[in-house]
Amino acid sequence: MRPRCLHLATLPLLLCPMLRAQAGPQCQVVPRSIVAMRGCFRPLLVFSPAPNNALLRRQVALLDRDADDMMDRFVLYTPVVPGARQLGTPLDAPYTILDAQQRSEIRARFRIPEPEFAVLLLDEDGSVLLRSTNPVNPARLDALIDRTPERQVEMQRPHAN
Description:
It contains 7 helices and 4 strands, in the order H-H-E-H-H-E-H-E-E-H-H. By secondary structure, the chain is an alpha+beta fold. Strands 2-1-3-4 form a 4-stranded mixed sheet, with helices on both faces.
């Protein structure tokens, strides 16, 4: 029996996990931790002191307006807000609500005090792509994401988002 040969174009996919497809079978549809998002989504952590904060409402409105772009780039709105279960959810933007312990750990990890508003965009590997103290326009998020090597690979795949 002859050994099967790999096409050279598939070799980087086998050697480099970061080049594999996002949101694959190992990914949870609705991840419940930052760890579960790694390699599957780009978390958009939005820290707010309260569910009714004006800056938070503004950020959610911006995200809803460009929900298709978020889905194309595997961006997952993740509010880090006390009482997050009582938040009004976005109309169209993909999101997840983490439990209180997860939110507390995320605040500590990124050193965001509870009374502050902040937006952090994480890449699929968990690195911080953006940190802002104001709501962020999705066009800015798209531009940052589109410059990453992972996104460049995603855009070249057949049927890519």
